[in-house]
Please model this.
Amino acid sequence: MFALLSFLLIAGSFRLQDVSAQTGSNTTVAVTTVAMTTGPGRQGGGGQAEGTVSTEVLGCTPTPRDVQGPYYLPGVKHQHVVCRGGPYLLVTGTVRDTRCSPVAKATLEVWQADPTGCYKINPQRPNFCRGKVRTDARGRYSFLTVMPGQYGSGWWHARPVHVHFRVSARRRRPLVTQLYFSGNASLGERDPCKFCGSDNPSQLTTPRPPSGAEENYTVGGTRYRVREVAEWDIVLN
Ligand SMILES: [Fe+2]
Model:
């Protein structure tokens, strides 16, 4: 009797894990809405039910983790202007969980190379090309920076242009990842970092011109002129 009960418990456990994996990947915004409203019945609703499945919008797939690299510094102060000098790139998006719910008060730590491809770890300038921002009640974040430069040359090919992120929120494991820019010649197989995800479509953004209110970004009473906007939504596991 005990053996039979143990078998049933173990079998049930495997079934739950299958369901978790199914709903945690390739889930769309539309599907998640169904799953949230159907509650325990999400085993069916999270997959192909209701005819609402879109295969085009991967809204709730966790953002892949990526290499942290050697230049992360903890303790950087909150600041919305990451790299100064312009021309300015506005990076903005929404942080969500795997049910597509916005994650409020998530902390985004950001660091990157300057336009010449240089990182600095200088005690006199600890916040050089680094920043920290929080999401609002709708999970929205934004910061201002400049387009990073590439680094590496000669026998060591240049890494593609990228920005490092460390995203943390209550009761969630921090996500360390990188954002890349479409069209860069060093993406994918040409990236000397063989453990990085620069060919992953969900880590790519295509900057566009600002529109309307995006043209100006005001921080602490100072108004900055925005040249480009890069949108990137992040999904925490
Ligand atoms: Fe880097």
